[in-house]
Amino acid sequence: MKKNFGDSISNKVYEYRVLARMSQKELAEKVGVTKQTIFVMEKGNYIPSLLLAFRIADFFKVDVADIFAYLKGNDENDR
Asked: Can you give the CATH number for the domain in which 25 is found?
């Protein structure tokens, strides 16, 4: 049976994008994804690949941990 850890990733993509005065479309073009990908990522409904996370961090010239944070959940099978 597959374990459900409940882990997630939070992000500050919206904050960095707004500070850079960019549209979702502009950021998407810079990092090679669609506007929809940026939209759902900012809403917390999409966890990017490591490659995309590093592309976004590189674009803003910050460490990936400045934009993305690991939120550890609980393993429901360990109760």
From this structure: 1.10.260.40
Q: Which tokens in the block code for residue 62?
A: 């910050």
CA atoms within 13 A on the CB side of 35: 5
Query: What average pLDDT does the structure give for the chain?
Result: 92
Q: Can you tell me the distance from the alpha carbon of 9 to that of 14, in angstroms, rounded to the nearest whole number?
A: 14
Q: Which of 62, 55, 48 has the alpha carbon at shortest distance from 16?
A: 62
25 is a domain residue: yes
The range of the structural domain enclosing residue 28 comes to 8-72
What global pTM score does this model have? 0.85
The answer as to whether 77 is a domain residue is no
Quick one: how many helices (H) and strands (E) in the chain?
5, 2
Structurally, how many domains does the chain consist of? 1
Q: Which of 21, 49, 26, 25 is nearest to 36 (CA)?
A: 25
